[in-house]
User: What shape does this take?
Amino acid sequence: MLIKERSIITWLLNPNLKQAPENLVIAPVSNPINQSILGNSLIELDKIRRQTPEWGLPELLMPSFEEVMYKSHRSFEKIMPQLFEDFCEREECGILLCRGNATIVYGFGSNQLHIWFFTEQDGKSVFNFFTCNVCYSENIGVGIANTLLTDNLLFSGSLQERQQKLAFIAGFVATYVAVKRYVKVETIVIPQGKFTAIEGTPLEYIEKKKVLNQTGQEVIVMDSKWSRKIINENDIYVRGFFRMQNKKNEFGEWYKELIFVDPFIRHGYHRNAKIEDDEIDKL
Assistant: This one.
């Protein structure tokens, strides 16, 4: 996998730059007013950039991590309003490198999720749209200028399909932040300029096994233990705990009794990757 230089990242992570790079451009539009709307959205992002928020390093989503996101989405969806509020209080923000050469810049704050969406085309970071999203129920409401949504050079498909796409992206970002915080995640820092092996990558993701980072700065790979076979040969000290134990009485009838299990040492364990367990369940 090759991570090429992206002008949007260079610009965001260097707040002392007075001008945007030449390769940071606005997407072609059919309605002239949208040129101004997108330009103003970039100006707002520039104001935020100059305040040096804690973007962190750009984060590359591996297929295994996205798989965990999809599997976790429904669980997080039920508590999304609370999560959304928490993310806004913490002012979560970051830069995501996604499939299809997409770069998503996001920031939570003031009960809103702000998203700037870029794509990489011919060595340029192309700014496509900005959305301001809110969450009052399980669903996230998407706010976007109507002229942008109806611009056929920016979006394709029916109006409903365009709205669904934007809602998916907002949900994708919110789920990503939730998984990063609450699911066991492995992060691998990829230094600039040399191949870095991602050990344990499943065979179906073999093309992602090595990463060459040419962005000019370090990149964090977001992976997940979900797709790894874990072997732990260390002694694990388990604290004592209460549990309900199944027992039989003198009449051969089963009942449950509360017992206390003394502390003990567990001598390592092997755990299949979740994707392997799923395949076994299908047999």
